[in-house]
Amino acid sequence: MTATAVRVPGRARFGGLLSGDTPTFIAVFAFGWLVMAFFRLEWWRSVLFAGMAAHPPVLLGLFAVLAVLLLGSMLNRSFLWAEPAVLTWLDFTGHDRVRLVSGRVWTVWFGRLLALGYLGALLAAAATVPLWTWYAGFGVLVLVTAVVLPRAAGVGPPLRLPVAVAAGRQRLVDGWSARVVRLVSVTFLDPSMMLPSAHPVPGRPVRSVAAFALAGMAARARFAVPAVLLASVVALAHVALPGVPDAVLVGLGAYAALLPFGGGIGQLWRSPGLRRWLDVSDRALRGWHAAALGGLALGWALVAFAGTVLLGSPLAGAAWLAVPLAAAMVLRTATRPPIGYDSPGMTDTPFGPAPVRLVAQAVRGPDLGVLGVLVLVSQPSGVLTVLVTLGLVVWGVLR
Fold first, then answer.
1. Where does the sequence pass through the membrane (predicted)?
2. Tens of pLDDT, residues 67-95
């Protein structure tokens, strides 16, 4: 073991941000955009609060739930990864791999802390909250970190965290493989590859399509707690951010909460051999998974409804139509056909050439939701709104 910092040969410092290449341009552009947001606070007030007075306690509660949601994501320990070649080099040269992994834990934590700090500062500045809210927000970050970080990383020397000491080579390589899949899915505009895998579920053997759909949901039960937190975010944002349409909040929240549970049919759709082995029509598979997702969507909606009732501000009736729409969005996202790269159809955009056909295939699912939410926002009531929304739901289930 060496006392010097681990330096992997051939790797750019600071993730290539100082290389002068594309990462530098993206970093400078993002930094400028983030800073300019604080010079347009009046615009943010009109968008988020619609000229209404802010509710500092509710806004603080929204920030607290977001902090739990974002910092709590460290509990899945996605930071435990290392490239096999790097591991071999570390072991061969006598370096300590624990220092490398421990440093990444702190980097992941600090990145989430920066994101939360920026979001909280922007919301507080736009809402012109009193000074005590700023102090309370800082206390929330300290409290959530004190609870979550020891559970995710353990307690020990900063450069030799217990979670890094316990991570063996196979665990790090498995984490690296999962990371490669995520990077490839982003590079090739195929978000369906990012749907989470299943965990073993005890119980009887699966003997029907209905049981198969339910087993796929149960194998991803670890995402139930984030789904409940997202329902709480929707309920709090409904009161704290009156300028944001309710249909937008419900649609985004339900889609994010239900998307991990579409991993079962998503994995099935990427395996034509497995689909043939099941010897069931595609329409039957879609129907049973739609029913299972519908049940989860109903449970999620009940949690969100309970939150709005406790806050004394129930959501408008039309906004709840975004819940079945979100379930159809998830099904449409998970059952997308394989992306074709033979004719991407390039076109010029302000950010350079873009493959229109690939982008259109990548947004399959959210495209249905955007159209439905626009209908709900522009026409929040009426029989035509209900019929159009239900028509989009049926389209998402069948196509």
1. 21-41, 47-71, 105-126, 132-150, 223-241, 247-269, 290-311, 368-398
2. 999 999 999 999 999 888 888 888 777 67
